Amino acid sequence: MTGEEKYAQSVKAYEEKLSKILIQDQIGFEMKISMKNGNPKLRDLMRVVMGEFATVNKNSRDVTDEQALKVIKKMHSNAIEMNNDYEVAVLERWVPKELGEEETIKVIREIIVTGGYNSMKDIGKIMSALKEHRVNMKIAGGIVRTELKE
């Protein structure tokens, strides 16, 4: 096995382990590492994220991955609006990738067919069903309207 193959295998094993760790714990780990490595910018961002987690679940210091993702997505979209490229790049690691346009169209068509939706009155039901999928809701809205018109 070459050095590159060993490295790739190590990275894969690390990513598998990381995927089994709660997001809150991943953020905490990032914060500790940034403290040890003297990276105040990352440390401060991770502290803010942890602080946001604390506001979500006031009864417990622990948050579910679902709650953590909601917080991170909100912070990520705020960072995009504020043109904060550093925060966008860091937070992107935890934001699930959205489906592309083709995949979004397939999902919308499937929802329309399985739900038996055929009129513009059904847009709310379709959009509600789309929340379970990783789609850009602004783009999906236009696609839904186009699909229902055809």
Structure description:
The chain has 150 residues and is an all-alpha fold. It has two domains: 3-91, no CATH class; 101-149. The chain is built from eight helices and no strands. Helix 2 (23-36) packs antiparallel against helix 3 (40-56) and helix 7 packs across helix 8 (137-149). The protein is globular. The N and C termini lie far apart (55 Å). The mean pLDDT is 85.
Shape: globular
Number of distinct beta strands = 0
Mean pLDDT: 85
What class, by secondary structure content? mainly alpha
Helix fraction, binned, reads over 70%
Order of helices and strands: HHHHHHHH
What separation lies between the terminal Cα atoms? 55 Å
Number of domains: 2
What secondary-structure arrangement, pairings included, does this model have?
Elements lengths: L2 H17 L3 H14 L3 H17 L8 H17 L3 H7 L9 H15 L7 H8 L6 H13 L1
Helix pairs in contact: 2-3, 3-4, 4-5, 6-8, 7-8
Please name the defining characteristics of this protein.
0% strand, single chain, mainly alpha, globular, 2 domains, 150 residues
Question: Would you kindly provide a brief summary of this structure?
Answer:
The protein has 150 residues and is mostly helical. The protein has eight helices and no strands. The mean pLDDT is 85.
